[in-house]
C-alpha cells in the first residue's frame, strides 16, 4: 500500500513494488481522481480518497435515515445498517428484498448476528444489514416508511 501525501510518490512506490519486487497486490492512494484512469492503464489499483469522501458525504446528507457502512465497486452498491422500524416487526425478510436492488444480508438480534432466510421474521430491536444498489436507496427508504421525513 502506497499512501503518502503525494500522488507521484505513491505511484512510483507502487510501480517499484510491482515491477521490481513483484509484490502480488499493490494499491496506491490518489488525491487527484483525474489521474486514476492513467494509473489503471499502467495496471495499478488505485483508491481515490477524494472521490470516496465526496460520495460518502453525499450519501450521508441525502439518506440521513440509514447508516451507510460501505460501498462497493465505484459506489454502485452500498452496505447499509439500520435499526428495524417498528412497522416491520413481524414482517419477513422477503418484505424488504427486491431482486437486483435490495437484499437483507444479516440481522443482529440479542448481540448475535445471523444470515436470514427470506422467510425469517423481524423482531423488535433487530439491527438489519442490507446491500442496496445505490440508485435504489430512495426505494429502500420507501420500503422502510422513511420517505418524506
Give a quick set of tags describing it.
2 domains, single chain, two-stranded parallel sheet, alpha+beta, Alpha-Beta Plaits, 4 helices, 26% strand, 149 residues
Compile the SSE list and pairings.
Elements: H1 7-19, E1 27-30, H2 36-41, E2 45-48, H3 49-62, E3 67-72, E4 77-83, E5 102-109, E6 112-114, E7 127-133, H4 137-143
CATH superfamily of the largest domain: Regulator of K+ conductance, C-terminal domain
CATH class of the largest domain: Alpha Beta
Tally of alpha and pi helices: 4
> How far apart are the termini?
42 Å
The proportion of residues in beta strands is 25-35%
CATH architecture of the largest domain: 2-Layer Sandwich
What is the CATH T-level topology of the largest domain? Alpha-Beta Plaits
Q: pLDDT under 50 segments (min length 5)?
A: none
Number of strands: 7
In terms of structural class, how would the helical and strand content be classed? alpha+beta
Overall geometric form: elongated
Mean pLDDT: 86
Output the radius of gyration.
20 Å
Largest sheet: 5 strands, antiparallel
Adjacency order of strands in the biggest sheet = 3-4-7-5-6
Helix content: 25-40%
- Total domain modules: 2
